Amino acid sequence: MHWLYENDSGLEQPYDTSFSSLIDAYTFKANINDSLFRQINLIRKIGNTGAHGKKVSSDSVLISVKALHAFSAFLAKYYGEDIYEIGVFDEALVSTGDEEKLFKQQLQLLQEKLATQEEKSKNL
User: Fold this and answer.
1) How many helices and strands (H and E) does the chain possess?
2) Which terminus of the chain, N or C, has less C-beta within 10 A?
3) How far, in Å, CA of 88 to CA of 91, rounded?
4) Cα 52 vs. chain centroid, distance in angstroms?
5) Tell me, what DSSP letter sits at residue 39?
6) For residue 28, what pLDDT is reported?
7) What Cα–Cα distance (Å) separates residue 99 from each residue in 14, 60, 64, 102, 115?
8) Burial of 3 by CB count in 10 Å (0-12 exposed, 13-18 middle, 19+ buried)?
């Protein structure tokens, strides 16, 4: 948000430069539609929940990531130097955590193999 205010002369930075104040500023809200504002505000609310030590559900995290995708598409479209075709958010690209479990299992198997090989080397 700070980058936007520093690089867009049409945005008037409020006295309070907290994220909440920056997104609530009239000059910012006047340049985005209501739907995008609600998505940015959701990012703020869910982020605050996690930042203050409360558990954030995986569904809430996914909602935040989708909202961040929409905001990033807005930034690319209106502030990017090149023209980008931003596709719709693809949930299939989001990690479910299963990959990490599989990686840990594979790592454990490799460690056990290595330990077995080291033991065999000692006995030679």
Assistant:
1) 6, 0
2) C
3) 9
4) 17
5) H
6) 96
7) 44, 20, 21, 5, 24
8) exposed
